[in-house]
Amino acid sequence: MELFLHYLTMPYLLWGIVFTIEVTVLGLLGGLVLGVVLAAMQLSRFKALAMLARGYTIIFRGTPLILQLVFAYDALPHLGLKLSALAAAGLALAANEAPFIAEIVRAGVRSVDRGQVLAGEALGMRPFTLMRHVVSPQAIRFMVPAFGNETISALKNSSLASVIAVQELTLRSTQLASSTFDFFSIFFASGLMYLALTGAVAAAQLMAEVMLDLDHPTPQARFARLMPWRRVAAEEPVMPADGEPPTETDVPSQAPPHLAVDRAKRVERLADAAAAVEIFRLRKTYGRQLVLNDLSLTVRLGEVVALLGPSGSGKSTLLRCINHIEEWDAGTIRVTGRRLGFDAAGRALGPKAVADERARVGVGMVFQQFNLFAHLTAKENIAGPLRWVHGMPADKAERRAIELLERVGLAHRADALPRHMSGGQQQRVAIARAVAPGPNVLLLDEPTSALDPELVSEVLDVIRRLAVEEGLTMIISTHQLRFAEEVADRVLFLAGGSIVEEGPAQEILSRPKNTRTRRFLQIMGASEAV
Amino acid sequence: MTEAKTRTRQATLGTAAAAGMLAAQIAAAAGLSVTGAAAAAPAAPAGCAALRDKYPELNGKTLVNAINPHTPGYEALDPNDPSKYIGFDIDLGETIGECLGFTLTYKPVTFAALLTTLSAGQADIVISDIYATQERAKAADFITYSKVFDGVLVAKGNLKKIDGINMSMCGTTAAENTGYVEVPLIQDLAPKCEAEGKPKPEIQLYDNNANCIQAILAGRADVYINDVNTVDQAVKAYPDQLEKATAVTLPYSVGIAVPRGNTKFRDAVLAALTEIQKAGIETDLLKKWSLDAGTLEAPKILSVD
């Protein structure tokens, strides 16, 4: 015991810890930089880069660290690069950590719901903006435990640097044991030193997890949660508002306007309006399946078009092609006269240029699954993209967000996270987000299909008011026949990738000519009546 | 017998008056306690001044000595001050350095990595109780200075009755360091054992001397064959658990390794070592570190170039 304490406090061994930490830090930081690069290469759309990164991963993940250390130390000098022992150890550890960290980063990035990425793209975010504001913050939260693991493993792996004469803890312990023959007291002492180091890493990981935990918004609450005795108490009050059923008074409800009276006027006005969306002979296949079959369509400014049709008829694909978050095989699409995603000569633009054009042309999109940014409050979901994409000053973006939340009846949930809101509330925020930049066209992809029946009406109310009050051009794919009849100027019936019937809403819905339309309306009508 | 002869020969060698006085000093220092290597390194013999003139490029230089510091007596940490290395090889190296005007820093590596570290240029010289063999001469040039005697270390009682690198080792397990010359010698026993219908000896490979000794202590291995002085040190550290079964001669010499092709440096070390041996300093150092079983030879060069 006395010997053990002697070695535990021996400056020679304690200084060894400094080298151990130096090697670990070099390895982790280098590995982090290289790992992010590798992950980016693997996630990139350039095949050659991905292959290169794969090759690196295969080699450096597939060979033992000890060989890599010896290589960096003894082989590199033959190639003219003579690194110090510490630098060689740092290099080898970094090279070895990189593929592991790359996989953690890749897993983190992929853990972020694809829908949120689509929503970000639809809002006109450049790939980097999307990565920085949407993907990274969520991915990092996911990656913390794996990073904690990796740090501890790097710390222990640093002991292998003893084979290339780095004076770290393990080398010092083994040499000391050889000269004193006090094998066990020395190794117990150095073992305890390693435990203290790894324990500190584990504590840091735990802290990071708590700090990044979105369910504990205040720093005090986050720290309190670290204390075991506070845990039970702190877990209890999870957002009291969460349990409250969304009251219908949320939405300033008004009687639906008597559209019938205005209908004639609207038709007249629309006939003169400029084209908002022009689609010419759009064709798209998934493998051998034809999804859009030479589809042509013109939507006028201010017009509300409802897309009806069975699942798989191409409604969603059509909407996604309009703001070019989906590629197609042939045909052209113009939004307010511009070919979104192509330059004047008709060449396809890169992702960054497409994003900028999406923001400029102004095509908002609302998704079936809401796709709110899960780590941001309702207010930030709206204000964030205004700042990042449109460069709006923070205070102005905030005012706009609050104003829109008021209009969708959710001012009181401005600071709530998406997961603490009902589906209906989330979709109302999503609509506010899509409308915030003042788009020319709003695309709504089955906006109520993922909602419980009792939440459908609050969302439809919001859409209805946008159509009437804002005069927004909207293309809505929906199964809500009554809603379509009430709001849409025109109804299109899609089947097999083609428009099989179109016309004024009331006409199509009450007197369908096409047999497929008729059959579909019968089924839908029956289910809607239930 | 051999030891007595060696001692008398060494005594006749140490004739120079100055060196004799030094030897007394060293003996006194060694008797008191193991002090720092630098302090104990004796002053250079008279012939060294001429060598410094002949090899001026070494004067004032700092060279890196790669060592496997797990062999108390030859090279190990100073238990009283772990920031220093001490032992016969350390003293010898520093004396050579003093003679030629260079100083040494140390790079601790595994035994198997001694020569690779040298040929990678990560070290300039290896003075670490390494035996000069034809095989190893492919990686480095050697300046030899002492015959090899090996001790056979076994657990107290020598239950397996091992008495050398011979048929008594059939069916036993030997602990050795990776890269030791004893490894192929033991491996060569296998066909002979099998010819007699006995099981062949097994070899466990470790990274350093201390791990080999631990293998015997833990009962994992039956025998560890290494430099006789190293074996004696181990027996001294664990007198109740270990014993030296016997000593054997091996057809090798202990050498200092230097990079191949650098004949000037090699010749300088050879010349310095000759001066040091002539002045009796090497003998004194052997005594200081209780390495009486070594047998000095006139320094020679082993090179395949």
Structural class of chain B: alpha/beta
Gyration radius of chain B, rounded: 19 Å
Tally of strands of chain A: 9
Provide the low-confidence segments of chain A as ranges.
230-258
Order of helices and strands of chain B: HHHHEEEHEHEEEHHEHEHEHHE
Tell me the strand order in the biggest sheet of chain A: 5-6-7-3-8-9
% residues in beta strands of chain B: 25-35%
Report the largest inter-chain contact: A-B, 26 and 28 residues
**How would a crystallographer describe the biggest sheet of chain A?**
6 strands, mixed
Give a structural overview.
The complex is a heterodimer of chains A (530) and B (305). Chain A has 21 helices and nine strands. Chain A is α/β, with parallel strands linked by helices. In chain A, strand 6, helix 18 and strand 7 form a beta-alpha-beta unit. The longest helix of chain A is centred in the N-terminal third of the chain and has 33 residues. About 5% of the residues of chain A have low confidence. Chain B is built from twelve helices and eleven strands. In chain B, the strands form two sheets. In chain B, strands 1, 4, 5, 6, 7, 8, 9, 10 and 11 form a nine-stranded mixed sheet that branches. In chain B, a hairpin with a 2-residue loop joins strand 2 and strand 3. In chain B, helix 2 runs parallel beside helix 12 and helix 5 crosses helix 11. In chain B, 50% of the residues are buried. Chains A and B meet through helix 4 and helix 8 of A and strand 2, helix 6 and helix 9 of B.
Relevant terms:
A: alpha/beta; three-stranded antiparallel beta sheet; elongated; B: alpha/beta; nine-stranded mixed beta sheet; two-stranded antiparallel sheet; 28% strand; globular; disordered N terminus
